[in-house]
Amino acid sequence: MEIVILAVVIALVAIGAISGLVVSSRKKKQLPPQAPPTTPTITAPPAEPQVGEDAAPPHDESRRTIEEVDLPDAQTAVEEPVALEDPVVAEPVAPEIEVPEPTAGRLVRLRARLARSQNTLGKGLLTLLSREHLDEETWEEIEDTLLTADVGVAPTQELVERLRERVRVLGTRTPQELRILLREELLSLLGTDMDRAVKTESAADIPGIVMVVGVNGTGKTTTTGKLARVLVADGRSVVLGAADTFRAAATDQLQTWGDRVGARTVRGPEGGDPASVAFDAVKEGIAEGADVVLIDTAGRLHTKAGLMDELGKVKRVVEKHGPLDEVLLVLDATTGQNGLVQARVFAEVVDITGIVLTKLDGTAKGGIVIAVQRELGVPVKLIGLGEGPDDLAPFEPEAFVDALIGD
Q: Residue 383 — φ and ψ, nearest 5°?
């Protein structure tokens, strides 16, 4: 027992000795010196931009007192007012007056455009007539060609009968002989002895009065403007009456046409009485001593009785100055037989004295000229062959037929 106690004591003493040695060795090791704490640098925010005097550093400035400021005398304090110059107002620039092409030979110059219609009528007929045997089937094809070209039933039957008779009697067969034969018969249908001049001279001591009528979309207002160019090209002075008051664009359009050739346009308020505008236009034409007064009326639907009655009113009011010298009906050549229906209704309301066929180019068929003349018994006086300002030409039967059948 004593031996055990002694062993425990010896073990405790050994453990204590070892612990002392370890502690003393740690004290001998030196730790690395630590850097002194640094104070953080604080950056001031950028100064806001200043305006005016605040932008510069303040500085001392000597200021004068009120006693040191020289005041003006009472007599010199009141100065005479400075005269301001009147603002320079630019004068309106007058539109440049155009010189239209002369009307003489205009249709001949436009022949190339008119010739686009010849494939259906002229060349088609010449091809059929040149066949070796002209049997019934061929004559039926000739008749169909004429009807397709809007010649009309009655004129077609008349032309076919006359062609059959002359071919049988004369025995013509060469292309040149057939061309001469066809030219003569077409001219006979068109009528070379009809008076196709547009009447612009009045029997009374007033300007010639021309009224232009037609349905919507036929080019009526444009035709009126182009007709003014035709008359100016022939040396006539013109006053335009914008009696289409239901469409503001029509009035502006007509005035533009007039300004181009130096013709004055009489217009009224939008939606006003067209008869009143027509009356004033003739009155102004008389006062100015103009040669011609052209009156553009509103487009009428031939199926509306009220609108057609109003057209009759315009005619009656204008005739208080004097009789109308010309009433031109504008028809769209591309409408074909529908144009003939329009023509009949207008002829019942006003006395049509002449016809203007517009859009008679490659989209139309030349036979409508024959049909409309036969329907109304009045001549085609003007034809429109395009959209150009000088594409309205006096109708010349010989030039028209030559363009249809070619040389």
A: -135, 140
Of 246, 208, 245, 210, the closest CA to residue 226 belongs to: 210
pTM: 0.72
Dump the DSSP string for 179-244. Answer: HHHHHHHHHHHH-TTS------B-SSSSBEEEEEE--TTS-HHHHHHHHHHHHHHTT--EEEEEE-
Integer Cα distance of 353 and 210 in angstroms: 10
Q: How many CB atoms sit inside 10 A of residue 37's CB?
A: 6
Q: Which amino acid is at 27?
A: K
Annotated binding site: 214-221, 296-300, 358-361
In the predicted model, what is the mean pLDDT of the chain? 78
In angstroms, rounded to a whole number, what is the distance separating the alpha carbons of residues 74 and 66?
17
Compute the distance between CA of residue 250 and CA of residue 295 in angstroms, rounded to an integer: 12
DSSP 354: E
Residues of the chain with confidence (pLDDT) below 70: 1, 17, 19-95, 109-110, 112-120, 172-173, 300-306, 361-365, 407
> Are the beta carbons of 326 and 352 closer than 8 angstroms?
no
Structure token digits, residue 87: 């603002």
pLDDT digit string, tens, across residues 243-284: 988 877 888 999 999 999 889 999 988 888 889 999 999 999
pLDDT at 271: 81
**Which positions make up the binding site for GTP?**
214-221, 296-300, 358-361
The CA distance from 359 to 342, in Å, is 16
DSSP 68-114: GSPPPPHHHHSPPPPPPPPPPPPPPPPPPPP-PPPSTTHHHHTHHHH
Residue 16 backbone class (left: φ over 0; alpha: ψ -120 to 50; beta: rest): alpha
